[in-house]
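User: What would this chain look like folded?
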Amino acid sequence: MTHSSSQNVLAQLKKCLSLAQDMATHAEANQAFEPLRASDRQEVIAARRSAAFWQQMGEVEKDLSDRMLENMAQLRRN
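Assistant: Here's the prediction, encoded as structure tokens.
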């Protein structure tokens, strides 16, 4: 998330909180908050996918390193 979009989200959250403080505008606060909630879900999904990808990349690198060490050890024995 970029700095400007972070500021935009923060401004929207402040607006929602302001609206939620008055029972007369409570429904409006819920409506204003819904797009933020949906956006957060998408960001969480993207973050989880990214974390899973990098975890798998780490496992691939570890496997490659282990095989290289085995090959080096085999070369030394020969």
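The chain has one domain: 3-77. If you want, I can go into more detail on any region.
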